[in-house]
């Protein structure tokens, strides 16, 4: 899920389908290399994948951080928006905002 190849292929599929044409559910919270991530299940009729989304601004989703994701596991992330940034030949996903968490 965090390999360069996986992230690049996932980025291609997300861009082909469109970020807003997918549904997102919280799977877990992860701390790795001094960064914080949420792991999300990403789905629509053409795609079923997991994404490792870096979170820099926790203001709208502080509850996920405080509970380390446990309290929100399986919750739908409605209006979930993230950027796909390319760096050193690898795509990275960075959380931007969401409308609401449906638990």
Structure description:
By secondary structure, this protein is of the alpha+beta class. It has a single domain (4-102), classed as OB fold (Dihydrolipoamide Acetyltransferase, E2P) (Beta Barrel), CATH 2.40.50. 18% of the residues lie in helices and 48% in strands. The chain is built from 2 helices and 7 strands; from the N terminus they run αβββαββββ. Strands 1-2-3-6-5 form a 5-stranded mixed sheet. Strand 5 and strand 6 form a beta hairpin. The longest helix is centred in the N-terminal third of the chain and has 14 residues, at 4-17. 21% of the residues are buried. The mean pLDDT is 95.
Properties at a glance:
103 residues; alpha+beta; five-stranded mixed sheet; two-stranded antiparallel ribbon
List the helices and strands and how they pair.
Layout: H1 4-17, E1 23-32, E2 35-44, E3 47-54, H2 62-66, E4 76-78, E5 81-87, E6 90-97, E7 100-102
Number of domains: 1
In the CATH scheme, the class would be Mainly Beta
Q: Classify the beta-strand content into a percent band.
A: over 45%
Specify Rg, calculated over alpha carbons: 13 Å
The largest β sheet comes out as: 5 strands, mixed
Uncertain residue segments: none
Give the overall form.
globular
- Cross-sheet strand order for the largest sheet: 1-2-3-6-5
CATH topology: OB fold (Dihydrolipoamide Acetyltransferase, E2P)
Order of helix and strand elements from N to C terminus: HEEEHEEEE
Approximate helicity band: 10-25%
Write down the overall mean pLDDT.
95
Q: Treating each run of at least 4 consecutive H or I residues as one helix, how many helices?
A: 2
CATH architecture term? Beta Barrel
The secondary-structure class comes to alpha+beta
């Amino acid at each position: 899920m965090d390999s360069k190849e996986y992230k690049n292929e996932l980025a291609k599929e997300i861009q082909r389908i469109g970020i807003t044409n997918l549904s997102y559910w919280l799977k877990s919270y992860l701390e790795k290399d001094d960064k914080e991530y949420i792991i999300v299940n990403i789905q629509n009729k053409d795609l079923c994948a997991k994404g490792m989304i870096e979170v820099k601004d926790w203001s709208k989703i502080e509850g996920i951080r405080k509970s380390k994701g446990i309290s929100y596991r399986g919750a739908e992330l409605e209006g979930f928006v993230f950027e796909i940034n390319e760096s050193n030949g690898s795509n990275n996903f960075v959380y931007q905002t969401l409308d609401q968490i449906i638990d």
